[in-house]
Structure formats: structure tokens, C-alpha cells
Amino acid sequence: MHSTERERLILEALRPSGFVTYRDLEAQLDASPATIRRDLSRLEEEGQLLRVHGGAKLPEERADRQPGLAGTPFEQSITQHLPAKQAIGRAAAALCQPGEAIMLDGGTTTLQMCAHLDGLDCQVLTNSLHIVQALLPQSGTRVLLPSGTVFREQNIVLAPAGEDSMPRFHAPKLFMGAAAVGPQGVMQQDVILVAAERRFMDRAEEVILLVDSSKFRSSSGAIVCGLDEVDVVVTDAGIPAEMAEQLREAGVRVVVA
Fold first, then answer.
1. Whether residues 60 and 183 fall in one domain
2. Nearest to residue 71, comparing CAs of 219, 185, 170?
3. HTH deoR-type domain: from which residue to which, for each copy (predicted)?
4. CA 178/CA 162 separation, integer angstroms
């Protein structure tokens, strides 16, 4: 990856919250720590950011940025681990029954289910405009959206925590993604996402988690739920054996796509 592209991605990672860690940059850029430090030094010399302990932040004069969600922007995330996400989406759609009502939480992995729902005539509640766009050509699929604010980084509709914007809807199955999954539970990088997913979970009989194996790692973040609140995990063959065992011990069915 060229330095210009890395610098663009660094600035994009800074935009939502104004701070990014070295660890997050290493994961997103696939570059060595030394390379990332050189990139940050150049951007600091240009006045684009300030290097601080553990990462970098936006300069104070740029702190009036438009608020957004923490985490990787959708257009960047969708290209990461794509073959695994496509296989997971196909396996997850196979769990749906014709005519069933389901909920699809916004995400790059749940999006991969959409093509395989065609012909099932499902009723789908989703907060993702990407998923709405993918489902609209399917004449038999009925689509519902909650109300709220559109967050452009993820193209997702969210209401503030504590505000219930969901239509009256109950579904046998909720399909959702995660930023990370570990022994402590399912995590997201933004508390607004956590609130939205909890509202979905309250309306579902079964919680089905769609995550590629890169998500099974130690990470900080807001906990959505414990492992014991998940019914099924659909993932790829790269899932660590110890994590698969912990999931099964928590009563979670593991489906390997």
C-alpha cells in the first residue's frame, strides 16, 4: 500500500472520534509499526494530527468535526475478509425459512445474506440502507426501517440510546455482526450501536451472530451481550479452537461456513 493511501486511511480512522490507537492502525493498514510511526510523523509535520501516547488525535482546531460512529467506515470494511463474509452470508441465509420475519442488523457480513434471500418472500426489518438497497429488487421481500438519524460512515439508521424508534415487530431470528468477540462477550466500538442491537435483541427469539474469524480477538469496546445470550455463531474455518470450545460451553451452536 502506497504511503498516500495509508495517510488517507489514517485520517479517515481519526474522523469519527478524533482519536485512533496504534493497534487499530496496524490492523487496518497491514503495515509495520515503524511504517505507521513514519506516516504519523509526516502527518503531524503537516498539521493534520497530533501524536499522543498510544496513538494519534486530531488537533484541537479540528475538533469541531461532524459527529460520527467509531469504527471502520463501511466502504473500507466491506473489502476486508470478503470471501469469508460471502460464505458466512450464504450459510446464514440457509437458516431462514420461506415467509419468515427476520431482522438484519447493519454490517458488511449481514449484507452478504441479501442475495440468498431472494425467493424466500421474507419480511425484513433492518437499520441498514445498504441492505435496503440490496433487497429492493426482490419483489417478494418486504422491507421495514426504524426511524432515526442516518450515519453516513456506515449508511445506517440509528436512534439515540434510550429512544425507542422500532416499529411493532417480533421476529424468530436476528442476524447481527460485531466488532470483536471474546470470552467477555460480543463487542461493538460505539455505544449507539450497542443500544440499537439491544433493541433488536429484545424483539428476537433467536440471536445469530455473523462474524469472520478475524473478529475472535482480545479487544476493548462496549459489550453488547454475553456469549450466553447468543444462540448461533456463523463463522469461517479460521475460528480459534479455544474460542469455538468456549462458545459451545456457553451453549452456542457454531456453524462453520
1. no
2. 219
3. 3-58
4. 21
| Grid cell 495517510 in the structure block, residue | 7
pLDDT in tens, the chain (257 residues): 788 888 888 888 887 667 788 888 888 887 888 899 999 999 988 888 888 877 888 886 554 444 555 556 666 677 788 999 999 999 999 999 999 999 999 999 999 999 999 999 999 999 999 999 999 999 999 999 988 888 877 788 887 544 556 667 888 999 999 999 999 899 987 777 888 888 899 889 999 999 999 999 766 667 899 999 999 999 999 999 999 999 999 999 999 99
Domain boundary among 67, 89, 121: 67
| Cβ–Cβ under 8 Å, residues 85 and 74 | no
Assess whether 131 and 251 both reside in one domain: yes
What single DSSP character describes residue 165? -
My answer on whether 15 and 140 are in the same domain is no
CB-based contacts of 64: which residues, under 8 Å, 6+ apart?
A: none
pTM passes above 0.85: no
Q: The domain containing residue 159 runs over which residues?
A: 77-256
